[in-house]
Structure formats: C-alpha cells, structure tokens
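Q: What does the assembly look like in three dimensions?
Context provided by user:
Components: two
Sequences:
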Amino acid sequence: MAELALAIDLGGTQIRVGLVDALGQIVTQQSTGTRALEGPFVVIDQISDLCAQVLAGTQAKGAAICAPGPLDTISGRVFGVQTLKGFEDFPLRDALSQSLSLPVQVENDGIAGAVAELCYGAGRTYSDFVYITISTGIGGGIILDGKPLRGRRGMAGHLGHMFFHRDWPRFAGAHMPCFEDWGAGPALAHRAMARAALDPASALHNRALDARAVYQAATQGDILAQNLVQDEATLLGIGCASLIHILSPQAIILGGGMSQAFTQLAPMIEKTLSNHLKPGFDGVELHCAQLGTTSSLIGAAALVFHPHLAARA
Amino acid sequence: MAELALAIDLGGTQIRVGLVDALGQIVTQQSTGTRALEGPFVVIDQISDLCAQVLAGTQAKGAAICAPGPLDTISGRVFGVQTLKGFEDFPLRDALSQSLSLPVQVENDGIAGAVAELCYGAGRTYSDFVYITISTGIGGGIILDGKPLRGRRGMAGHLGHMFFHRDWPRFAGAHMPCFEDWGAGPALAHRAMARAALDPASALHNRALDARAVYQAATQGDILAQNLVQDEATLLGIGCASLIHILSPQAIILGGGMSQAFTQLAPMIEKTLSNHLKPGFDGVELHCAQLGTTSSLIGAAALVFHPHLAARA
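A: Here is the predicted structure of the complete assembly.
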C-alpha cells in the first residue's frame, strides 16, 4: 500500500482530517464543526477522534496540522487564533503529538495552501510565486526558489496585514485598516449592503448579503453588483501590485472562497496591475488556485512527503 | 597588494566611483555631478573617466555598478531611471562593460545597500532582515537566509511602492499614492510647509523647507516640528509593520538620508510597531544603517568579492 500522510486543517468553523498520498490525492477524509468556544483541549480531543476514524488502524508516514495563526512553526506554539477561544500561546504541536502519540508538524494554513499549489496545483511550473487566499480574511504564502518563505518564527506570509490607509495619525493608536479589512469577503458584503440601501433598482437592495451573493448578482447582470466586483478587483489588484513590487514573483495565485469568482475579477485585477506596476514588472502571471477548499490539508500532507519544504526544527 | 573591486554608484545627481577592498574599506574614490539630461552615452563616458582616474593603472578584481532602476539585474538592462534622461530600456551592463573593457555586474542600489549592511554593517549578525532606505525616495533590499532576495528579473525590494490608500476607486486609473509618496523626505517637507503656513509660532513658518530642516527644528524644541517628526515616524512604522507581516524578518535596518534622524524617529517607530503588529511579531529589532552615503558603493563592491551574493546570470 502507498505511503499516506495524516493531515489536519484546523479552522474556526470546521476541523478537517484526511489521509493523503504522495500525489496529493485525498484517500479518505472526515470533518466536524469546531467546538471553538470550549478551549484547546476539547479541540485537541475532536482532532484526535477524527484522526482515529480516518486512520482506522493504518500507519501514517507522518502527521501535520495547519491552522490560521499567527503561530510559530519552529516551536509549534500558536500565538492566538481569532476564531478559537483559549489558543493564546498554546503549544499546539506538543499537545497534539502527545494526544496522537505521533510527531506532528505545525504550519500556517496560508503557507500550507501555497505548498499545495507548488506541489500539485497552479504553482507547479514556478519557483517564485505569491499565493493569496481571500475568504473571510486574507492570508497566504510566499514561495521563493521552490520553497516557502517562513522567516523568523515561521511567521512570514501574513499578506492581509499590509496597511492601507493614508490617515495614519488618526489611527496611530487604534486599529489601522489593512488589506484584509478592505479586501476580504466581509468587506465586500459590507460595501454592497451600504450601496444597495441607496439603490432600489439593484437586486441587492435591502437584502442581507455575503460576497457570494454579490458575485452571483453581477453574473446575472445587476449593474451595482458589477460595479462592486470591479471595485473589489481594483483593490485586490492594488494589493497584488504592492506584493509584486516587494517580492518580484513570477506569478500571483489567488485562492480561497474569492477564487470562485476568479474569472469575474481577473480582467480588472490585470488592468489595475498594468496601471500601477513600475516598468519591468509587466508579465507577472495571474492564476486561479487549483486545489479549492482542501488546499491547506493537501499542503500539510505535502510537508510530510517533502522534508525540504518543512519548517526547520 | 590586496585585491580591490571597482564600484560605481550611479545616481541622478552624482556619480561616485571607488576602489574598495574585501573588508569594505574604500581605498580611493572620485565623484562628479551626473549630466542627467544628456543621455546614457554621456553618462557612460563620465563613469569611464572616473574609473580611469580611480584605477590609475591598478588591476581591479572585478567591477559592479548600482543604480536606482527599476533594472533587470539578470540581463543588465535598465527599464528607466526617473532622474536620468534616456535610460529607458538601456543595456547598462553591456554598454559599460564595453567602455571599460571589463565584465560589470549591475545591481539595484537598494539591494546593494542591503548587501553592504549584511557584509559590513548593522546586518552582520542577521540572516534575515529588511533594509529600507529613505531619502528623496524609498527603496531597499531584503536579505533572506544570508542572501539578497532578487526575484524575477532581480527586481525585488521596491519597498517604496507598497500602496497606501483606501480611496482606491478614485485612483483606479491615476497615480496611486504609495509608501514613498507619503514617507520619503519630500513628503515630510511638503507636510511641514503646509502646516507651518498656519502656525506663526513655529520656527518653520513661511520658510522653504526640506526634511533636514524639520528634524533640526525638532531638536531645537519647535513643537510643530516635533509633531511632524512623530507623524513621520508613525508612517514609517506602518510601512515597517506591513513588511514585517509579509516577511517576518529578524530585523529592520533604516538607511538613507532619513537615518541621520534615526534617534528622533526610533521611539515612535517602535511604538507604532507594538500598536500594529500581530501577536508573535514582537521582538523584531530596529537598527540604524551603519554605512551612510557610501553604502551602495560598498555593497556593489561586496558583490565582486562574494559571488554567492551576486545575481545569477
């Protein structure tokens, strides 16, 4: 039987556990709703139960867990997860290793997604790319010379936390709006509701909206929704342009929930790039991620099969 | 006699040429005002004349030139230099190699500055840091695993071109304000003059100002100048925080003209970092660059002595 990796994707709403082969194929998987308010030891028990079900006696080659972080992939400690209670300064790697009686690697889920695209997805032909995942937040991972950039404590790639505001003195001590605050799904939904309230002609008028509803209405010809999609694409393009100027990658790969609207967003993202990139940065390629909602799970497994991609201990 | 590298720093106002030893010491140097409006071949002649004076018959181990760019360090072509006429898509490496009858490396001056700090300055004890140079523009270089990050075409490190604005739709087709537009010396001077016009009590009132004048007045106790310095430090701190979230470096090193005011700026930069960095990013160290105005020259020379730091051909 082929060697299999035990991979865990810990999120604020769902825990997903899978056995994944060396080609990135999920052989079997289980998921459950995260008991997010009950503290880390309840969550560790949930993970362990799922692992036992998925393994069903199979011997895994190794195990890896990814989570939103920020987390220190060198020490395996989580500094905190916004959507999970009690994970402040929690030794995730050691607690889970003990519970599973297996050595476990810990990775940021954005970096895991980037590794998945590198090994099995849209990044296979590149040595240098930026993977940006846009869902309820914005995160990602940076691949340089065919390996993830981890930096100090393994914490590189918090791409949603580029700050985006001119009114800095006003925000000196307060929360400073960042790429995530303006570009992620909830921000689009918020803008949509604010503008739709003033536009009785729009199908979006006076409805509770999420980002998906805006993309759908745009597809169906709603003018306001189409304008909102163009604004969103412009903003994503500006974020991409900043990252291109800093890192000069070969390609940008967009993943997360927003990637389902990639074909709607891509033309204006490309236009924004050509408007704002300095000379010589033309030709950076823009791609949709290929691995969908299981990318982080597959990427965590890839770390088990490809030790040169794993964080240094 | 010790081996010497021939290093050239091409700027919009000045050309500087030096012979530098393997310890980063400038043995001899010459400079001249750049004939910036007369086209690249006049400038190449100026450089060649200075090189002949500096060499005076000495055999150099190799030669390297740095310039503002954006430039392609792989092919040695410059895409354009804002302050130099006629450098659009100019084959700087080949033209200079031919004129000097020597192989010449081409490097972005921000990356050269980072390499200098890595080899001989404030970056010696780090493997991962971001060097930010703040003068009339903002540029820099990123050191990862002890080597400069170059990326596609060798163009990484254009740190001044992170975009900094929330009003993206308004700027969709126009110039989008970026870190450089708000953080570099001219922006500080511009803010200072606007605010001083309304403040007769300030020593800055109704004067033509540059950034240096603002720092000097702040040192002498001028309240408006002190407030302007705090705002500038806040803005620089926000730019640093964005870069820390993306790259997770061990340290940030600030160079360029603004580094002369490092001790005035550092406390508020540190405070801004602690206000805006996500958990776990604490402890990134902030340093003043050590090599002053000759850092790019010394860094170019370092590329001659340390082939593992040079761009891949």
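Follow-up: Chain A touches chain B through 58 residues (CB under 8 Å).
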